[in-house]
From TrEMBL:
Keywords from the UniProt entry: Cell inner membrane, Cell membrane, Membrane, Signal, Transport
Organism: Rheinheimera soli
Main location: membrane
InterPro entries (UniProt xref): NrtA/CpmA_ABC-bd_dom (IPR044527)
Pfam families referenced in this protein's UniProt entry, alphabetically: NMT1_2
Subcellular compartments: Endomembrane system
Protein name: Nitrate/nitrite transport system substrate-binding protein
Length: 452
């Protein structure tokens, strides 16, 4: 059956070769935020993959995720390196009236939670995990009590209200028995700090280390290279990576508006083809090209960070504390494990977290979650792009997932959560019922502070 489907796709590709060669738009502007996982955009440009598709692309850094989203929405940018949760939220009508969608996941993993080094030094050695092992947020309990006795609150940073970082930080805190706070949009409270034991606020990624150094933040969850920069400067210690928190999950995606995708279907497929090749190059031969990629994105017009710092996460030699490294081969994943395919399960998980913390104000049935996922994650352009790459001999059938499979989840790299909770994307409400901390139904939120 899989062979038949790919044969039909390949036949369509070859029969419509003339049409496929005609992009509706060839001069494109793509946006990104300065993080290592913008690498596929840089690689596709520097390696000539965009040009191979007849596309003339400029890649432009944006100040923060809100600016990036606004510029995609109003058409100043054709597409962008976007947060998976950001695209899911916009499609569900949260924080934006624009309908965004994606047909390509740019990477898995790539984030971490970092704590102020001075606070970490106060944690008893007996409570600390080995370097490279996930550290429970429960180690923050003593510091939280100390801050409270002084009439203060601990402050942690995240990058955007609908970002993976926000949900990962909240998940980690709640798993350690710390309430991260609710959103209450129907009450006009979008701070996310209702009933919080620890306050979470938004800070642009490149500003995280400096904000910690100034004493404004005691911790943060962010992508690279900003955790490694904080470690190098002696400011912080990495306590957990998002791979350790939840395993394989869509991190960044190629975000476009639904209107743009409808108006530019051939251009869209060509963008996906170029970026698929870039992802493949980044993971090829067991990350053999990662040092070259780190040098590439160290340029000022890309990430503009020290190549040594960029290389740590990109090559998998991750520094958790000054002078203490651990091999994290899958800290950044750009292609393997079918990383690039838009699996519905990832979108559903983000929606459950939006409900858990109150951004989705009312309970929804299970069917709603799947409908929303199908609206935002659009696999058809991906499948067509893959078929064309196979026909052209640039990638192989075995490089791609079985498009005939009905599974909602990524095969071969299942999500594994730090608290041991099981996630079945076909039963999102049952999943939410497992948590002692977080909203579960139309009833009042469960505000327990015991470890969940």
């Amino acid at each position: 059956m899989r062979l038949l489907t790919l044969t039909l796709l390949l036949g369509s590709c070859c029969l419509s070769q003339a049409e496929a060669a005609q992009a509706e738009k060839t001069d494109l502007r793509l946006g990104f935020v300065k993080l290592t996982d913008m690498a596929p955009l840089a690689v596709a440009l520097e390696q000539g993959y965009f040009e191979d598709e007849g596309l003339f692309v400029s890649v432009e850094a944006q100040a923060n995720w809100k600016v990036l989203q606004d510029r995609v929405t109003d058409g100043q940018l054709d597409a962008a390196h976007m947060l998976a949760g950001q695209v899911v939220a916009a499609s569900a009508g949260l924080g934006s009236q624009a309908r965004l969608q994606t047909s390509l996941v740019l990477d898995l993993h790539g984030n971490a939670c970092t704590l102020d080094k001075s606070i970490w030094q106060q944690v008893p050695q007996a409570q600390k995990s080995a370097i490279g092992q996930a550290q429970s947020a429960a180690v923050l309990q003593t510091a939280l009590k100390s801050f409270a006795e002084q009439g203060k609150s601990m402050q942690f940073g995240t990058v955007f209200p609908y970002s993976s970082h926000n949900y990962e930080l909240r998940y980690w805190l709640a798993a350690g028995g710390i309430h991260p706070g609710f959103y209450a949009p129907e009450q006009g409270d979008n701070s996310g700090q209702l009933q919080a034991q620890l306050l979470i606020s938004v800070t642009p990624p490149p500003q995280m280390p400096a904000t910690m150094e100034a004493g404004t933040l005691q911790g943060f969850c962010v992508g690279e290279p900003w955790n490694q920069q904080a470690v190098q400067k002696g400011l912080g210690v990495v306590l957990v990576t998002n791979e350790q928190l939840h395993g394989a999950m869509a991190e960044k995606v190629l975000g476009v508006t639904a209107d743009w995708a409808k108006a530019n279907p051939n251009t869209h497929i060509k963008l996906i083809k170029a970026l698929l090749r870039a992802g493949y190059w980044l993971d090829q031969n067991n990350n053999a090209n990662r040092v070259a990629a780190a040098k590439m994105i160290s340029q000022p017009h890309y990430v503009g960070a020290d190549v040594g710092i960029l290389s740590r996460s990109m090559t998998g030699t991750f520094e958790f504390e000054q002078g203490k490294t651990s091999q994290q081969q899958d800290f950044n994943v750009f292609f393997r494990y079918h990383a690039t395919y838009p699996f519905y399960a990832d979108a559903i998980w983000y929606l459950t977290q939006m409900r858990r913390w109150g951004q989705i104000a009312k309970a929804q049935d299970d069917a709603w979650y799947l409908q929303q996922a199908q609206q935002v994650f659009q696999p058809e352009p991906y499948q067509q792009a893959a078929a064309e790459l196979i026909a052209e001999g640039k990638l192989k059938t075995t490089d791609f997932v079985d498009f005939t499979a009905t599974s909602l989840t990524r095969p071969g790299k299942a999500s594994s959560f730090i608290d041991g909770k099981a996630f079945d994307p076909s039963q999102p409400n049952a999943y939410l019922q497992q948590f002692a901390i977080g909203q579960q139904s139309d009833a009042a939120p469960n505000t327990a502070t015991a470890k969940n």
